[in-house]
Design brief:
The protein is mainly α and 295 residues long. The protein has three domains: 1-65, no CATH class; 77-231, no CATH class; 241-293, no CATH class. 63% of the residues lie in helices and 1% in strands.
């Protein structure tokens, strides 16, 4: 049984890993990208992907195709005061929904930690910028192996999730509605996958800490849904903004007022301005951009 077949079997059936013959990079690449991806995808979406990943490790597949991933093995233990990144990664993959976008992103989400580990004055461990570094490492890995060359949409989704995987976990309940809307707008079509990855990324063994982390992610998701419902029936600009514009700029009621209001709405739709602020906020924006709006 080849290393890839053994890994797929372990992932699908939950079998403990067994010693298998090491596979070289040349042997793997000789299979072709389509066959490689088919076998690897079987591992990634199976019920026991952690078992499959361990089989890929012992079979030499990780070292041959994903040295950035294999570098996480054994990285982090009690000596360095942070959890083993490989064990954490396997658990995140296992906890994530069995969708290719989320599980491939889970595999890569912390690869940047190996290159960004630093220590504070009191011995605390930091991984500043590891999400950005990880996204660049994913880019380099893909250029080297071309595993996602035939699936650019999946490649884009995985990179996006690696780059932004910390965003939802930064939510602490204090975000304003504008901040929640901005987050949802920034995440766009990747929002659901990102929220799934964020939940899966909570691997603490302390039940209360895990419960609190998941509850915050769920709270953020709930606020996004409620605001979306509200925004569907509520205009983005306050009712009195036109009247205040006429008073402030000495303008008479005219079609021009409507044109300026539409320009403000476009600025809101594109994310340049937040929605649902007080009228004074938008008039101040116009004041500071008179030339742009012909005022």
């Amino acid at each position: 049984m080849s290393a890839l077949e053994r890994a797929a079997s372990a992932a699908e059936q939950g079998e403990p890993d067994r010693p298998i013959q090491l596979t070289s990079a040349d042997e793997l690449r000789a299979l072709g990208i389509e066959e490689l991806r088919k076998s690897l995808d079987r591992v990634m979406v199976a019920p026991h992907p952690d078992e499959g990943l361990d089989a890929l490790l012992t079979g030499g597949v990780l070292e041959a195709l994903f040295p950035e991933v294999s570098a996480m093995v054994g990285f982090g233990d009690g000596e360095w005061r942070h959890k083993d990144v490989w064990k954490h990664t396997k658990q995140v993959v296992l906890q994530a929904d069995a969708r290719l976008e989320v599980r491939w992103a889970a595999l890569y989400h912390d690869v940047g930690k190996v290159k960004t580990r630093s220590f504070g004055p009191n011995g605390e461990v930091h991984f500043f910028g590891h999400a950005e570094v990880g996204a660049r490492m994913f880019d380099r890995a893909d250029r080297r192996e071309n595993l996602f060359s035939q699936d650019p949409a999946l490649k884009s989704s995985v990179r996006f999730l690696v780059l932004h995987h910390l965003r939802a976990s930064q939510y602490d309940g204090s975000w304003t509605d504008s901040a929640v809307r901005r987050f949802a707008r920034d995440m766009g079509d990747g929002l659901d996958d990102l929220m799934c990855l964020s939940r899966a990324d909570i691997t603490t063994k302390r039940p209360e800490k895990k419960r609190r982390g998941v509850a915050l992610i769920d709270e953020l998701g709930g606020r996004i849904a409620e605001l979306a419902k509200l925004d569907a029936v509520r205009p983005p600009l306050p009712k009195g903004v036109g009247t205040l514009m006429m008073t402030h700029f000495g303008m008479a009621p005219s079609r021009r007022i409507g044109e300026i209001k539409r320009a403000l709405e476009v600025a809101v739709e594109t994310g340049e301005l937040p929605a649902y602020e007080e009228s004074e906020f938008y008039v101040d924006f116009l004041e500071n951009n008179r030339a742009r709006f012909g005022l």
